[in-house]
């Protein structure tokens, strides 16, 4: 199976040629987007490319590989919109791309060293730009890591970064061979609670980060009430700080989770499938906690654990989360009355435990059941992970 990571390397001196190339790229994206939108349904990339290639090459002057990348990217975006529309989460709409990013193919559009990247620009051919690299990222420039399609991205602060994607093949792990499992419940009271098959558990607290985010929330409310341009500028900066804070915390927590799993010889980590979690549970969340519920980076934490676990030779699986917080781990009785804030008390058998730990126990059990289901059906589960650092 393949493990993929993306590292963000700041471009020291982006020049006019680079900025102009990104603008041309966006122009090409919008041209193709308009064709797909007017068609009123998705055009597969293999059919879209012949329709737009000549215009991208001859009229806009884009390079050959870029003219192939653009229709694939646009087709993929509209395909996603259609899939979301089926779930009632989106609708058919015209996508307008801003000149803030472009995808580049390795060797054809860019080459890279630890300290510089050479990019094919629109008007000046290949140009070399210096990069700010980091000690932890240096290992990704060596075998077995391989470079793949990457991006130049303009960040919110106006800086340009090279988002380098690297990947490596990791030997497949079979869940059927697993013997020790661990369930992970993610939430707001604790960022994560882990429980293993042999009932070893660990709590990863989130109180400090929650308090810090409350400070940001209150600051944002005060700035919104002012409504001035300077206030909006400060709000934008706060959003960036909060996002970076959450990402850093999730990296630290995910590292600790995988370390705990490795120390206890865990073969498989089981997560709850969070697909549609916000829309499914929003009506159960009080107005007071709605901000944290809608903006908490649950999925990011799971993805960070997944890629770190893969590098440690541990499988991750996602199981049905239905009623994990209301189900008694001891007797399987399901009731809303079983949970009382941080406490779980089964109204039938009297079992008492921390509510998040009870959920983690249930997730571990469902992951274990999933393993036996696969074995009985003769199937194999293979997980692919991607991570941005």
UniProtKB/TrEMBL annotation:
Pfam families: Cas12f1-like_TNB, OrfB_IS605. Residues 298-363 form the Cas12f1-like TNB domain. It comes from the Archaea. Signal peptide: none annotated. Residues 173-277 form the Probable transposase IS891/IS1136/IS1341 domain. GO terms for molecular function: DNA binding. One of its GO terms (biological process) is transposition. In the C-terminal section; belongs to the transposase 35 family. This is Transposase, IS605 OrfB family, central region.
């Amino acid at each position: 199976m393949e493990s993929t990571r993306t590292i963000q390397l700041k471009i020291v001196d982006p020049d006019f040629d680079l900025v102009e190339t990104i603008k041309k790229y966006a122009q090409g994206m919008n041209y193709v987007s308009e064709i797909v939108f007017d068609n009123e349904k998705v055009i597969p990339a293999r059919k879209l490319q012949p329709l737009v290639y000549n215009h991208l090459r001859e009229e806009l002057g884009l390079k050959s590989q870029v003219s192939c990348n653009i229709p694939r990217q646009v087709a993929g975006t509209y395909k996603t919109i259609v899939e979301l529309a089926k779930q009632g989460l989106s609708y058919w709409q015209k996508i307008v791309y801003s000149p803030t990013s472009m995808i580049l193919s390795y060797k054809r559009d860019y080459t890279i060293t630890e300290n510089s990247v050479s990019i094919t620009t629109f008007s000046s051919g290949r140009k070399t730009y210096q990069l700010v690299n980091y000690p932890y990222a240096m290992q990704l420039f060596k075998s077995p890591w391989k470079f793949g399609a990457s991006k130049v991205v303009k960040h919110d602060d106006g800086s340009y970064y090279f988002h380098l994607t690297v990947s490596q093949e990791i030997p497949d792990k079979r869940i059927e061979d697993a013997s020790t499992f661990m369930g992970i419940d993610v939430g707001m009271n604790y960022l994560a609670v882990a429980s293993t098959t042999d009932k070893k558990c660990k709590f990863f607290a989130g109180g400090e980060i929650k308090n810090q985010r409350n400070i940001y929330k209150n600051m944002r409310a005060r700035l919104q009430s002012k409504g001035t341009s300077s206030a909006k500028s400060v709000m934008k900066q706060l959003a960036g700080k909060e996002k970076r804070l959450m990402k850093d915390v999730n990296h630290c927590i995910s590292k600790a989770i995988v370390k705990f799993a490795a120390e206890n010889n865990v073969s498989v980590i089981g997560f709850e499938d969070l697909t549609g979690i916000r829309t499914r549970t929003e009506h159960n969340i009080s107005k007071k906690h709605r901000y944290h519920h809608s903006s908490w980076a649950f999925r990011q934490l799971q993805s960070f654990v997944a890629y770190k676990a893969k590098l440690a030779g541990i499988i991750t699986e996602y199981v049905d989360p239905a009623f994990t917080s209301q189900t008694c781990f001891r007797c399987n009785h399901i009731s809303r009355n079983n949970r009382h804030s941080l406490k779980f008390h089964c109204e039938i058998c009297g079992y008492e435990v921390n509510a998040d730990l009870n959920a983690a126990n249930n997730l571990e059990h469902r992951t274990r059941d999933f393993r036996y289901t696969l074995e009985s059906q003769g199937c194999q589960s293979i997980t692919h992970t991607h991570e941005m650092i």
